[in-house]
Amino acid sequence: MPIEFLIPLPILADILLIYQIYKEVELRKINGDFNGFASVIIPIKGLDVNLEENVKSLLAQDYPHYEIIYVVDDYDDPSVSVLKKYSVKIIKSEDICSLCSGKIRAQLTGLRYASGDIIVFADSDTWYPSYWLKELVKPLSNFVATTVFSWPKPYRLTLRNFIRAGFWTFGFESQAVGGTFLWGGSMAFRKDFFDKYVIEELSKNWCDDCTLTRIAKERGNIGFIIAAIPLNIFDERNLIKWSERQMITVYMYSRRGFYAFILLSVFMLVFLILSFFSPIYTTPLILWVFKNIIRGYRTSYYILPAIASIFAIFYALILAPFALRQKYIFWRGNTYKV
């Protein structure tokens, strides 16, 4: 088939990417008027590379009434000596459930000691802009839960971190195609959401955001608050295991999004090959990068992840068949059966 007959295909891809950019810009208009006392619960295990910046960013929120609760596995955890420098609550994780993951155990422990009528879950490896909590809480007047995915920022520039930065941006693709999905490092609920049923469901699962996403969708709509994007700071040491876990999770809980991504990756690979014959096939690749620049511009760290996202497409395409053969997930020092 002559190359000319395939020209409409990249044009169609360009139109779809422009439409996605438009829809994401529209998401910035989501608002609300909900308020109250918020309890921000952060499970923590070990010493994250940016822990002090994480604590400082949470203490600097412009939301008027909130508390910060860090939940550790043990008071001997190396993070405790850092946390004690700041005005935050430090609680030891309690033996609440036997089938749940360590992260869920920490979250349920935090719930026991939370004073707020709003529950917010955050991560210890993330930097939160001062407007994060306010932007996340306000739309609870219109949604059963709110969330936002984070934007990647490598702690140092290595090949592993470069690929992970690009791979991380796919969390937004999953939201766009597979339906809104709660991300564990940034999600908010009214406290009454956590009734007996929710506690029981969490107590027998390893994946907190997967379980909460399913229940939230049973009860109403989830708001994706793109205006509240924080920065995920990381220094990846085991890229393949980490990537496999992310892909398995999306496959299990957002199957439509997973298949859409694989199809997209194949098309991008075709466009890359055909770009050597005609420059028009480069336009979807350029728009893909531009889309990610628009997503991350407010974080002031957007160029590297946007460029890395192109390389990560092909990395993910190669990894996918191997990831789906895995029977176990390795996470936070523990093994969980898929």
Describe it:
This protein is an alpha/beta fold and 338 residues long. It has 13 helices and twelve strands. It has helices spanning 8-27, 51-59, 79-83, 102-113, 132-137, 159-168, 170-178, 196-202, 208-219, 239-253, 255-274, 283-296, 303-323; strands spanning 38-44, 66-72, 89-92, 118-122, 126-127, 145-147, 151-154, 186-190, 222-224, 231-234, 328-331, 334-337. The strands form three sheets. A seven-stranded mixed beta sheet has the order 3-2-1-4-8-6-9. Strands 5-10-7 form a three-stranded mixed beta sheet. A two-stranded antiparallel sheet has the order 11-12. Strand 11 and strand 12 (334-337) form a beta hairpin. The longest helix is centred in the last third of the chain and has 21 residues, at 303-323. The protein is globular, with a radius of gyration of 20 Å. The termini are far apart. The model has no long low-confidence stretch (mean pLDDT 89).
